Amino acid sequence: MSEKFKLRFEFEKSGRIRFISHLDLLRVMQRVFKRAGVPLWHSEGFNPHPYIAFGQPLSLGHEGLCEIVDTALTEECADPAALCAAINAVAPEGLRMLRAWVPTRPLKEIVYADYETLVFDAAEADIPEMLSRVTGEKCVVLKKSGKKFVELDIIPLIRSVKMEPAAEGVRILSRVACGASKVLNPQYIADGAVGRQGVSARHKRICLLDGEENIFC
Amino acid sequence: MNEFEKAERFLCEVQKPARYTGGEYGEVKKDLSEVSVRYAYGFPDTYEIGMSNLGLRILYGLTNSIEGVWCERVFAPWPDMEEKMREHGVRLYGLESGDAIRNFDMVSFSLAYELCYTNMLNMLDLAGIPLLAAERGEGDPIILAGGHCTFNPEPAADFVDIFLIGEGEELNREVVELYRDMKAAGRSRAEFLSESVKIPGVYVPAFYDVSYGADGCISAVTPRCGAPARVEKRIVRDMDKAYWPDTYPIPNTEVVHDRVMTEVFRGCTRGCRFCQAGHVTRPIREKSPDTVVEQTIRHLEFSGGEEVSLTSLSTSDYRGLQEACDKLIAYCEPRSISISLPSLRADSVSMALLERVSKVRKSGLTFAPEAGSQRLRDVINKNLTEEEIEGACTNAFASGWNSVKLYFMLGLPTETEEDIEGIAELANRLVFLWRQNAQNKNRGLKITVSTSSFVPKPGTPFQWFGQNTKEELEAKIAFLREKMTAKAVTYNWHEPEVSCLEGIFARGDRRLGAVILEAWKRGAKFDGWDDYFDYGRWMDCFAACGMDPSWYNARQRGMEEILPWDHIETGVSRRFLARGWEAALRGETLPECSARCGGCGADRLKGGKCDV
Q1: What's the pLDDT tens digit per position in B23-73?
Q2: Does A92 touch chain B (CB under 8 A)?
């Protein structure tokens, strides 16, 4: 088996491309690497495939400002900044590599994420009540699980939450579980805060954090 | 806020929202200050289907290469998206800008299939554009349509301002440039339409009066306003010099065929009598192997694709195939790019080539004998013999293939029970051949036999033939099901209802516009999709319009009858087609063009001799 040189990218997924699914993102990444001529390492065997692993999947419709993707090359990357530029030149709108480096920590050390959520169906006056709902002892929302909905208490999954008025509604800044074992979609904070399922909101993942609440890199 | 920005609020609530966003690598964006004509390339089916279409890649690039013109894409939204758009008052928008196409200058539709008419109407309605050409005026977009359906444009005549007949590389450019220049000169919509008919290949249906006799048949088609009596299709004479895009939008989401497609030639020399494409795309025009290789590599590098398909109506007939494949294998193999060769004939040369290109992946074998007996294959001029099929399968089984798909049609002219039984017999013989030749029998054999119902198409020798009725076709399917006994053989069939409706519109006249409109009003859309097709609703619409559908599909036309599409010239003469019909009834075959010229007349379009 040929030698494998791991490389980690920090990237942004914003604008219109936020509507592609995680699976589509994986395909797009492969295509983009191929177009940019990235010397991707491939597994051996009947159906060789490259190594591509994401820090945490980003829900369809959410933007991410510092997402993580790992890959492996067949050679050492001499100039990560130039590689990012080459990839960005052939990437679809809204997908942008920010930097690349040789990873030292495993992806499973990602534990939390910060989100910025814009809730459209709310106003400044609603903030105190919204905040009290998601900072109490218990806050049960309906979570979609396959075709059914199940009850979920979101409080244990919220690390911190703040709210502020915004031009289009209310902005929620939250730090939530985003690891291998526990994960919370910030839509449920919006649902819990408003007290209704399927609240109209737009989400942006600001950063991924480790267990010590430091930026993961 | 433009239409896309309004839609963003609910896009997460619809299935596969990436279909409605644009923003792909390779999409064209232009600075509005440099744009004088806004053009929407409409595809009356889903994004996944439209983005797999080679015509879209070519014409999108072509239209955007015209100075001052910005061409955007627009597809039929799936009903869940349509419902949200209507609920929130979002009008159909171009994917590139997100702006309502209502305010564009031109909207074109690619009409590839008879059952997409209702989608075209639904898209016009979602856009807020009047459906009827007669109701559109100054300030409304010009509605254009092209594609194979336009070799009989009549059923869509009420809805389309300009049909573009034939290949678009030169024709579309001329029409769009004329519009751009006349708009700059401040000329009106009506003036543009009158001027456009001077461009060969332009058909403005409103400029033709159609009168009917007491028997319901057409008695005369009379042009007005300087329109030509006959509109001849346009072709590109030299495929090496024809426009070919450098780039095209690469979908961010999964589509039906996400691969590089390079056409190797247009036209066909085989002359299968049921095949519309093989007749209306004549004469044959090849690309040189160097052009094929250069264009393929250009698109592979641009797209980052892992698969390329060399397309045509009969890729084995491409004289440069060996050379192009040799050069492409040299490029593709080290890069793990697979080459697929659809529409290969079952001869030994093709099989050897297939073996070479499919080193990367061994997919199934597909044959289209079309008919179950040699007699009927002679009638339809499908020059594929029993020995060729059996020989090809013997070789394939011996070299490790274990799966074969066979395609047939039911309802061909002169068909008898013996012909249908022949389908089952052929499948059984392949099972026997596999037992004798297979290398490894542990993996089992899978033979899939599929039948579709024959739809007589305009521009073919079968254009006069009365299509089998739904009941006749259903009885034939039931008969064949009983004959299919081998365990290794799976029999699939298409329900004849869809083919019967296709049969009506394929050879319909402009009186059918009322039925299409009625069906759309009653909710018909995505008729090509099983989940939305509703035959009963269509039949109700015919009744409501006081029309007999069987007059259109099941009726044998008289050889002297004026056919609704007679004023549209494909280059193949009506006399040639009539000779073909008579020869078919006698079971006589017509040799391939390269063996002997059949005198179809299409060579005239090329200005002389055919390239065979």
Answers
A1: 999 999 999 999 999 999 999 999 999 999 999 999 999 999 999 999 999
A2: yes
Residue A20: which of B18, B303, B306 has the nearest Cβ? Answer: B18
Enumerate the residues of chain A whose CB falls inside 8 A of the CB of residue B18: 19-21, 24
**Could you tell me if residue A152 is inside a domain?**
yes
A75 inside domain: yes
Based on its alpha-carbon atoms, the radius of gyration of chain A, rounded to whole angstroms, reads 19
pLDDT score recorded for residue B403? 87
Q: A 174-213 residues with CB below 8 A of B?
A: 198, 200
Query: Does residue A94 sit in the same domain as residue A130?
Result: no
**Would you kindly state where each structural domain of chain B is located, as residue ranges?**
3-232, 259-362+571-612, 364-494
Q: Which CATH architecture has domain B3-232?
A: 3-Layer(aba) Sandwich (3.40)
CATH code for the domain of A115: 3.30.70
Q: Which CATH class is domain B259-362+571-612?
A: alpha beta
Give the pLDDT confidence of A9-28 residue by residue, as tens digits: 999 999 999 999 999 999 99
Task: Tell me if A31 and B305 make a contact (CB, 8 A cut-off).
Answer: yes
Q: Is residue A215 part of a domain?
A: no
**Contact present, A176 and A159 (Cβ < 8 Å):** yes
- Interface mutation target, options B12, B246, B361, chain A, most CBs of A under 10 Å: B12
| Domain span including residue A80 | 5-104
Domain B259-362+571-612 identical in fold to domain B364-494: yes
- Distance separating alpha carbons of residues B69 and B35, to the nearest angstrom: 6
DSSP sequence for B283-344: SPEEPPHHHHHHHHHHHHHHHT-SEEEEESS-GGG-TTHHHHHHHHHHHHGGGT-EEE--S-
Are residues A156 and A74 located together in one domain of the fold?
A: no
Please tell me which of the candidates B17, B25, B254 has its beta carbon nearest to residue A90.
Answer: B25
CATH number at residue A35: 3.30.70.580
A chain contacts of residue B17, beta-carbon cutoff 8 Å: 19, 60-61
A189 with A156, same domain? Answer: yes
> Rounded to a whole number, what is the distance in Å from the CA of A178 to chain B's nearest CA?
21
* HEC readout, B333-396: HHHCCEEECCCCCCCHHHHHHHHHHCCCCCCCEEEEEECCCHHHHHHCCCCCCHHHHHHHHHHH
A138 interface with B at CB cutoff 8 Å = no
Please count the residue pairs, one from chain A and one from chain B, whose beta carbons lie less than 8 angstroms apart: 63
Alpha helices in B372-495 (DSSP H): 374-379, 386-398, 417-437, 470-483
Residues A142, A205: one domain?
yes
pLDDT at residue number B330: 94
Write out the CATH class of domain B364-494: alpha beta
Digit-coded pLDDT (tens) for A26-83: 999 999 999 999 999 988 887 788 999 999 999 999 999 999 999 999 999 999 999 9
**CB atoms A19 and B21 under 8 Å:** yes
- What is the rounded distance in angstroms from the CA atom of residue A163 to the CA atom of residue A206? 15
Among the candidates A88, A104, A120, a domain finishes at A104
Please report, for residues B161, B182, B223, the alpha-carbon distance to residue B135 in angstroms, rounded to integers and kept in the order given. Answer: 11, 22, 20
Partner residue opposite A19 with nearest CB, options B11, B25, B336: B11
Q: Does B25 touch chain A (CB under 8 A)?
A: yes
- How close, in Å, is residue B306 to chain A by CA atoms? 9
CB contact under 8 A, A90 and B23: no
Q: Do residues A85 and A131 both lie within one domain?
A: no
Domain membership of residue A216 (yes or no) is no
Q: Under DSSP, is residue B581 helix (H, G, I), strand (E, B) or coil?
A: helix
For B307, nearest residue in chain A (alpha carbons): A31
Identity of the residue in B11, B252, B302 whose CB atom sits nearest the CB atom of A61: B11
